[in-house]
Amino acid sequence: MSPPKFATIVGAGIAGLTAALALAQKGIVSHILEQAPALEEVGAGLQISPNASRILSDLGLLDALSARWSEPGHILLSSGSSLSPLASIPAGKAARTRWCAPYGVLHRAALHAVLLEAVRREPLCTLTTDQRIETAQDALSIAPADVLIGADGVWSRLRQAVPGALPAHYSGNVAWRFLLPYAAAPPFLNPRTVTAFLGPQAHLVAYPLAQTQTFNIVAIHQSAEAPPEGWSRTGDAAARARLLGAFSGWHSDIRRLLDDAREPLMWPLFECPDGAWTDGSNTVLIGDAAHAMTPFAAQGAAMAIEDAALLANRLAGATDVGQVLRRFETTRRDRVARVRSRGAFNRFAYHARGPIALARNLVLSLRRPESLAADLDWLYGYRTPD
C-alpha cells in the first residue's frame, strides 16, 4: 500500500484545523468539512500550556499567538473563603525556561482565528462550510480520502462509524462563564496571574485576556440536575440560584462577583467514556470526539492539539493506515488516561471540604513553587513522538 495522500476532516474547530496544518507539514492534502455556514468559535478564555504551545510553535503560529495572548507570571491556588494564596506555580519566563515553551492565555476565538488564517493560507488545505455530515459515507462522498478524521466535537456524528465508540454523558458539573472588564474587576483579581479559588463542591478560575482587557471568569460547581445536551445557554432563575447556592459559604467578594455577573452563560460539562477511537481501517476520532474531558486539568484543547500532531507524524510515510490508526489510539489512550487522572485528582482536591480541605491547604503551604512546577513536568514537558 502507498502512503496516504488525502485526508478528510470533519469539523473545523481547534482539533480539525490543527490536524489539517500538521498534515500539510507532512505533505498530506486535507479537506475540512464544517457544518456551520459561517465559522464562529464559541467559548471564552483558553489556557494553552507548554505541551500544546510547543506544537503550535512548530506549526509556525507562535508569533501570531504571542500578539494575541498574555503569559501570566504565576498560576495561583487560593482559598475561596479567605482569598488567601495557598500555593504558587511559576509560569511566564519560568515556563519558557523549564518546559522550553510558553504558557499563554487568550480568548478561544483568538486561537481559532489564528488556526483558520493559517489553514486558508495553506495550499494543501481546503475548507468547505455548511456541510451537514451524518455518516462517514456522507463525508467521503463529498471528499474522497485515504483517511477520515472525526474532529466534530463532543456531539460527534462520526462516532457511529467507529464500533465501540461511546456517547458523551453529563459529568455532574456545570461551568458558568463570563467576561469582566479590567476596569470593573475587584482588587483580588490579578491581571498577571491565573488564579484558581478553591472551595467545597466548587471552584472559580480567573485569568486575563489581553486582547479584550477582560478577565475570563469560570465558576464550576457540582449539580445533580442533568441538563439537556447542548452547549452554552443563559441559565434560568433556578439554575442561577443553584450557582449562588454552591458558592454560599465563600468570601463575600466572590459571592458579589457572581451575583453581579451580567448574562453569564451556563455550560453543562459532558465527557466521553473510554470507548474506541478508530475502526481500525480508515476512520479515527480526535479531540473531544474521542475523549471529551472536564476542564479540571485545563487540558481539553491541549489534548486535541497533541492528537493532531501525533496523528500527522504517524500517517507520514505510512503504508498501512489501519495499523497506524490502531497504534495512534494505543499511544494516545495512555497519555489521555493520565491526564484524566490528573483532572480527577484536581476535582477532588479543588472541591474538598472539612478536614480534607484543611489537610490540602496545609500540604500546599509546605510545597515550594519549584516543587509544584516539577509535578507538571510530565504534562507540560511532553514532546510528540515521531
Automatic annotation (TrEMBL):
Cofactor: FAD
UniProt-listed Pfam families: FAD_binding_3 (PF01494)
Domain (FAD-binding) ranges: 8-339
Keywords (A to Z) from UniProt: FAD, Flavoprotein, Monooxygenase, Oxidoreductase
MF term (GO), any: monooxygenase activity
The keyword Transport appears for this protein: no
Name of the protein: FAD-dependent monooxygenase
Native species: Shinella lacus
